[in-house]
């Protein structure tokens, strides 16, 4: 065979191999891009209450909504909600069972750190229960053992650490309970209105529940309830708050922890804009 013929065949063979290799690389690249695109298209699925301000609502006005938006943006993912009443029968544990544990979503905002029902991220804020009363009353209220609490009308949220603290001191019978956390027809504003109308003299409630509304009540004083007690073991009124994911979803928890670490200043700013004050 002529050398030129042999050379032509060799060149043709090499060109064919090159074209096949190039085609394989291109197909692999497209497959990789498709996988990346698919991952990017997966939404951040969040469960939230559709009508419970200041936490969340369908219009996205609550601080939980804004926190979720910030996380979705950091992930580069679309935010997708599953709406469910957190104050229906069974309360928050049943809410988690109907949503997160039923795989209707992947994350819930504003869950107490270390909750037994689900995995929790690192806390993204810490807040407290507070005493709220009219400034012109000049009450000397510093702790749950302050003497003046025995002489004035107390309002409190039922099924909270505050109720337990009042029971230990025999103060529940003369106090007024608000079922804000279990009655969808009530709003935290109801408690502030009762205070303004004189139906109660002091309100003891979770600060984030009323923080967003306190701007409309400049006549009110707010004092943090400390984690202390005159006699006996300390009581807890300050709690670190996290995001909750399903048990076993370590991957998502780590991603959320990374976002919290990177975006903490942004998350704190969102909370402050909604009147949430850090506890001590």
Write structural notes for this entry.
The protein is α/β, with parallel strands linked by helices. The chain folds into three domains: 1-39; 41-125 and 240-273, D-Maltodextrin-Binding Protein, domain 2 (3-Layer(aba) Sandwich), CATH 3.40.190; 127-238, D-Maltodextrin-Binding Protein, domain 2 (3-Layer(aba) Sandwich), CATH 3.40.190.10. The protein has seven helices and twelve strands. Strands 1, 4, 5, 6, 7, 8, 9, 10, 11 and 12 form a ten-stranded mixed sheet that branches. β8 (154-157), α4 (161-168) and β9 (176-178) form a beta-alpha-beta unit.
List keywords for this structure.
3 domains, 280 residues, D-Maltodextrin-Binding Protein, domain 2, disordered N terminus, 12 strands, alpha/beta
Share of helix, binned = 25-40%
Task: State the helix count.
Answer: 7
Instruction: Classify the oligomer.
Output: single chain
Radius of gyration, taken over Cα atoms and rounded to an integer in Å: 28 Å
Based on Cα principal axes, name the global outline.
elongated
Beta-strand content estimate = 15-25%
Judging by the overall fold, what is the CATH architecture of the largest domain? 3-Layer(aba) Sandwich
